[in-house]
Specification:
It is a single chain. The protein is of the alpha/beta class. The protein has a domain of 183 residues: Vaccinia Virus protein VP39 (Rossmann fold, 3-Layer(aba) Sandwich), CATH 3.40.50.150. It is 41% helix and 22% strand. Strands 3-2-1-4-5-9-6 form a seven-stranded mixed beta sheet. A two-stranded antiparallel sheet has the order 7-8. 36% of the residues are buried. The chain binds S-adenosylmethionine (SAM). The site of S-adenosylmethionine has 20 residues, from loops.
Length: 269
């Protein structure tokens, strides 16, 4: 229940597609407390800690929390996309805290057992085809008592947006749900409990109120299912017209968001 790896590699060759989606969230989210600040609030690490992030993307977590990274954190940022890591390096060039950057596929983590006090994997486990192997790897590199933090989405996330696309591409909702179905807020705890103890879930309350049609269209076109099977120019024009009409009729398009974070502990500590 995951996309094939080549589609994920193509989607994240750099941060361009991801940034189109982040732009919509930044402009239209109703929760004024920023997502990356909220995620950081849940880190329970001592002030001296060795931390590994898997699938770090452009490093927004660290840029948006640059003012509160403890000096004693030794942080390795990793992603399987070299292009994404280049963007992370650039994005974090003004942050004074030092980072180590490494290309790493989460399924084979090139570190000794019991190296890290915490591992982070935000909005990425659903992309990993060999999730059991990846979770075993994370458990292996964590110290006993170390923490694993992983954010993801729920089944209803962005539902109304995919319903709009479904008008022009029937079946989109079903195909789109496969992208994240492997690791969601609904099924994540059961998977984590096979490898970790004290699994807790936290929900981030939010929604989108969209009044800018172009932002919504850019989000839709950045998604991997529309990159592998693009809408024709005529379908794109019609979709944009539909979005504009909905906004004109209702003042805005309201979109459900379902996001959250799991916190878990590596046994033995
Ligand atoms: C949706 S982005 C999330 C980026 C960042 N963690 C965030 O929350 O903003 C998913 C990221 O995971 C990376 N990724 C996907 N599969 C991976 C794998 N098997 N190993 C390492 N990184 C992976 C992608 O390259 C991409 O940067």
């Amino acid at each position: 229940m995951t996309q094939d790896k080549q589609t994920v590699v193509e989607q994240y060759k750099d941060s361009g597609n991801l940034n189109a989606r982040i732009a919509l969230h930044d402009r239209c989210s109703v929760n004024e407390y920023p997502w990356q600040r909220w995620v950081f609030d849940h880190f329970t690490c001592s002030t001296e800690a060795r931390i590994l992030e898997l699938g770090c993307g452009p490093g927004n977590l660290w840029r948006e929390n640059a003012d509160r990274i403890p000096v004693g954190w030794d942080i390795t940022l990793s992603d399987f996309s070299a292009g994404m890591l280049d963007d992370a390096r650039r994005n974090l060039s003004a942050v004074t805290h030092p980072f180590t950057f490494r290309v790493i596929d989460a399924a084979t983590i090139p570190f000794d057992a019991m190296t890290f006090d915490a591992v982070l994997a935000n909005h990425m486990l659903y992309h990993v085809p060999d999730r059991s192997q990846t979770l075993a790897e994370i458990q292996r590199v964590l110290k006993p008592g170390g923490r694993f933090f992983t954010s993801t989405v729920g089944e209803t996330h962005m539902r109304e947006l995919w319903e709009l696309v479904d008008v022009y591409r029937p079946g989109t909702i079903t195909r789109r749900s496969v992208v994240t179905a492997g690791f969601t807020l609904e099924n994540g705890a059961a998977q984590l409990s096979e490898w970790f103890s004290d699994v807790e879930m936290y929900s981030y309350e939010d929604a989108l109120v969209v009044t800018e049609p172009d932002l919504l269209l850019a989000y839709i076109l950045s998604s991997s299912i529309l990159i592998t099977e693009p809408l024709s120019p005529g379908q794109q024009t019609a979709l944009l017209a539909l979005i504009k009409a909905r906004i004109a009729d209702h003042g805005a398009i309201h979109i459900t968001k379902a996001s959250g974070l799991f916190r878990a502990r590596c046994g033995g500590g």
